[in-house]
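Input sequence (46 aa), recorded before submission:
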Amino acid sequence: MSDDSNQMVAYLRQNPRMMGVLFTLTLLLSQAGSVAAGNTGIIYGP
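Predicted structure, token format:
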């Protein structure tokens, strides 16, 4: 497990922009969950 963690740390040190990409992706996914949970309106129709 620590080998995988060390590889990820080394990769992020070599590619610092990827840290921002991962943060943005995490932020978008957390917001998408909130939107999906809040979209439980009643649909009136035939």
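Checked by second reader. The helical segments are 2-14, 16-38.
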